[in-house]
Every structure is written in C-alpha cells, then in structure tokens.
Amino acid sequence: MRWPAVIVLILLLTPFAAAAAPPMHEIAVFGIPVEFILFAFTLLGVAFFHNHTLAVALTGLTAIVSYKLEFTGFHTGAGLAGLAGHLEHEWVILTNLLGLLLGFALLARHFEDSGVPHILPRYLPNGWFGGLALLVVIFVLSSFLDNIAAALIGGTIAASVFRYRVHIGYLAAIVAASNAGGSGSVVGDTTTTMMWISGIAPHEVFHAYVAAGVALLIFGIPAAIQQHRFSPIVRDVPQDARIDWTRLGIVAGILFAAVATNVVVNSAFKSLADSFPFLGVAVWVAILFAARKRQPEWSLLPEAFKGSLFLLTLVVCASLMPVEKLPEASWYSALTLGFVSAVFDNIPLTALAIEQGGFDWGMLAYAVGFGGSMIWFGSSAGVALSNMFPQAKSVGAWLRHGWHVALAYVIGFAVLFFTLGWQPLATESGTAQAIESLPAAAPQIENPLMAVRETLR
Asked: Which residues form the signal peptide (predicted)?
C-alpha cells in the first residue's frame, strides 16, 4: 500500500461517513464524532508513512475542513465565515509556534557550533557511569534546547565516544532523556512551548521534573550498562577544541528574550497577548540582533519550515476537534495519553488537551512528552535520531532492548502522582473549567500521601 492510498482513503471517508446526515449536525460512528475518526486516520498515516508526513497531514486537514464546511460548521459559525473566524482565533498561537520552532532550530545550531558538545566528552567518566553521565547531560541540554536538538547532539556525542557502535537500548535512552529533560521546561519541548503560548505559566509544568528525574534513573542505569557491555566509552577530544563564548552568549540571549517577553506580556499587557505574536517576534528580533556577531545557519530554515508546517497542520487539525466530546480530564486520562503518544504524535494530543483544558499540566507534559519515547516514531526526537541511526527503526528491537523506557514511564508517573497528586488548572483557550477534584469514577483525593497520613491517624 503506497502512501497516496492513505490520502485517497482519508478523502473518500469524509463524504461517505457523513452522507446520511442533515447539514450542520454532529455525526458520530459508534459514538465517536467523525472529526476524531478523520484525525485518527491522519495520525495513522503519519505513523506509517514517515517519508510523506506533510502530505498526509495536509490531506487530513483538507478532509476535516471539508467535512466541517459541509456538515457541522465550526465553533465560530458555519461555512467559510466560520472557518475564517476559527483561524482568526488561532492565528496568534500558530504564528508564535512557527516563530519559536524556526528560531529554536537556529538556536540549536548556535549551541552546536559553540563547541560545547565537542568539549563535553572530555569530562565524561569511564565505564558505564560515563554513559549515564551523557544521558544526564542530554537531559539538562533538553531543558533549554528543543528536545530534537538535544537528542541529535547526544547522538553525535554518543557516536563519537562509542565509536559509532551504539546499542539500540541506549538510543532509546537518548530519546527518553531528551524528552524527559524537556518535559518540565517551556523552552525544552514543543508540547510545553504550546502550553506556554496558551497562557500556562512556566511553573505550572515544572513539577514534571519530579517524574522525569525518577524516570531518568530507572532507564538510564540499565541503558548505560547495556551500552558499556556492547561498546565501552572512549573519551578522545581534539586538542584544538574550544568554546565559542560569543555563540554561547547568543543562545542565552535568545532564551532570555523569549522568557522575558512572555513574563512582561502576560503580567503587564495580558489584554494584548491574544492580538499579536509577541513571543515569536521577540525570538526573531534577538536572532537578527545577534546576527551582527555570529551569522545563524540560514540554510537550516527550508527544512525547518517544512517540519514546522507539518506540526502546525496537526495543531490546526486538533483545534478543529469537538473537545467537548472527550472524556473528562483526569490523572488516568493523562496516563493514557502517555501510552497513546507512543504511537501518535504528541503535538496534536497536546493541542487537544489544551483545547479541552482542566489538566494538571506538569503531569500531562511528562506523560505526552516522555510517553512518546516508548516507540521510535512516538516523538520527533525519536524520528530524528533514528534517521541518524537507521538500525533503530524497528519497533520490535526498540521495545525489546528499550524495555526500561516503558518501565520508567510508569514508575515516574506513579511517583509524581503519589507525591504531589493531581493538580488541575484550566487554560484561557480551553473550553473546560478547572477541576476541583477527580471525577467520581476515580478516588476523590488531591494528594494520595495526605490520604494515607489521615488514614494512619
């Protein structure tokens, strides 16, 4: 089955699924709205046809928009006027996201060209502990670099220090470290950046590091031992390797511009935040200002734009979903989304959650960010690293040798839940209100440890 067949299937599904329905009425198949079915087909196409992801995503968007134009309308109205109203509501978020994705691609290259990745192997310990230390470095890098960049930098260092003999279990750990490190930082992962743009404060996702830190130890130690047995570390660093402090300062300046702009706009000019993409513009002003000192790698932009367009297409698809039909936000829905993100891209899952609102954003950031590490195509970092190491493009081998990643996900989530509990918070863009307690089907506790202490009394 060639990839165009998926496009034809998605397009053909639209009229057949809705043919019997009256105009402007919601249609469901076995209780599932047709929009979700079209979206699921789109995500399946993305999962299985990695060389044609943009074409599949654009086809899915076309099918969803066509269906809503013809049958259900949009939240802002019916027809083209409704579509225009929807895009008017979303354009600031989409523009901010595009600016950040393109800007962070240049920022990551600035960091790589600063020489820091070439110096790092000099400070890695010998033995399996050196492999663990490299995973910690990747974790830290991902807290302020995009997780894709952190994974690629980590893969480059690993290829050097392990003489290009990198165990698949360790490759899975590199992806897991980059995703875990970005889960608690609004500049470390596209999913957390989306939350930030939507009005979620940086400190609302920071507690994801409780789970991520535990997970790092759970998967990091066995992965480092796997790698040491497969190919021990060799710490050769060129004698002429130096750090370009100017480039490193540029990286810090761009990040400072993003954080400072977000803080100022959301504290002093909150009424204007939805009318102009301040965050994306601030990043690009900083990049252009710094270009007088060091030119960015402009040649990266065409490929980065293609990848960004793919992600933005999925975000738009997610924004068109009838989120009022989703199950209520809860800790077990967040846990489930983590497993779902192993096979579906976490970008649209996050977009759906933001639209719905009412999640514990730190818990969700960990779930959708780290959960995608369980299979190689479950996250952008995994796809990028697998392009560097083609032997990783095997679901069976990834699951067999990277078993510690799935184990780490469950244990990390459990530690976060049983220490801090479920702390839901609504977003301004979400349709749901903050949940004061868990749904009736779940235990009505805010912090499980508090409940245990009360029982012991």
From this structure: 1-20
- pTM for this entry: 0.68
- Which amino acid is present at 310? F
Non-local CB neighbours of 438 within 8 Å, separated by 6+ positions: 330, 331, 422, 444, 445
Residue in the block written with tokens 């570390």: 233
Report the amino acid identity of residue 430: G
**Could you read off the pLDDT of 181-208 as tens digits, one per residue?**
989 988 777 788 788 878 888 889 999 9
Return the H-helix or E-strand segment holding 228: helix 208-230
Kindly state the tokens that stand for 424: 């839901």
pLDDT digits 0-9 by tens, 383-438: 778 767 878 877 788 999 999 999 999 999 999 999 999 988 765 544 433 333 33
Residue pair 131/227 in contact (Cβ under 8 Å)? The answer is yes
Residue type, 260: A
Gap between the Cα atoms of 126 and 103, Å rounded: 36
154 with 117: CB under 8 angstroms? no
State the DSSP string of 360-394.
-HHHHHHHHHHHGGGSTTSSHHHHHHHHHSGGG--
Q: Is the dihedral of CA 443, 445, 447, 450 positive or negative?
A: negative
Measured torsion, CA atoms of residues 311, 315, 320, 324, in degrees rounded to the nearest 10: 140
